[in-house]
Amino acid sequence: MQKTIPGCFFQQIYSSLTGISMERDHMKDLRRYLALKYIQYLVLSSSNAVSTLLGLLGSAYTIILLQSAKVSSKSTAVLISSLAQADILVFLSLVSDAVLGGFGVSPSSSPLARTLLVANAHVSCVLLSCVAFEAYLITFLPSESRPHRTVRNARLVSRAVWMLVAAECALFLLDEHLRASSSSVPNQGPLGLLCHISSSATALLRSLSYILGILLRIVNVYIYYKIFFSISPRSRLKSK
């Protein structure tokens, strides 16, 4: 019975995450992909080369898999697809580093590459939290939340996440550009005021992003804590 409870627990969590039947073999790949992404963005303090490489390979495979007719068109599948597409930003960042390195420029000095990585991390964290929230709704409010768990709403949420992160990163790039411009000219007049406003807004936004990242980690832990203790009693009953 001790072996049955954890097995049923993970099956129920991953079934909730995907919103699709667990009887299909390809769902195992999506479950592994989600587990990898949770570790990469919500468990590890920072990504390393191994997790980044595995994430890129997993995202490439997931994008191909979600194009297949085998995967049902569900709201969670839309969120997972958008999550996988976010790793395109990591690929572009690596390409940017390679190009700059070819011209003898230090990749660490490129604000574009850094901003692409920031965008990837922020989009991924928010979308993973959306997937977790949907798992919560499927587990505790399946009937009440069904009218809202639609493909259309999932696409709207994904677009909203991308637009907000794009605006955030545009502000980061603007601040980098203004700093570079102000270093070559006297920091006076309208340009100096604009640099000050941009710098203050960027610092505030970075602080809010950091706080939001911590809150998302707490919320995700709470959600799966609730799911675990709601499923365990049912698993014990089934095992008896």
The major pleated sheet works out as: none
**Secondary-structure element order, as H and E?**
HHHHHHHHH
In DSSP terms (H or I, runs of 4 or more residues), the helix count works out at 9
Q: How far apart are the termini?
A: 8 Å
Question: What is the overall silhouette?
Answer: globular
Mean pLDDT: 82
* pLDDT < 50 stretches: 17-24
How many strands in all?
0
Structure, explained:
- The longest helix is centred in the last third of the chain and has 51 residues, at 189-239.
- The chain contains nine helices and no strands.
- Helices cover 82% and strands 0% of the residues.
- The chain has helices at residues 4-18, 26-43, 49-66, 75-85, 87-102, 111-140, 142-145, 151-184, 189-239.
- It has 240 residues and is an all-alpha fold.
- The protein is globular, with a radius of gyration of 21 Å.
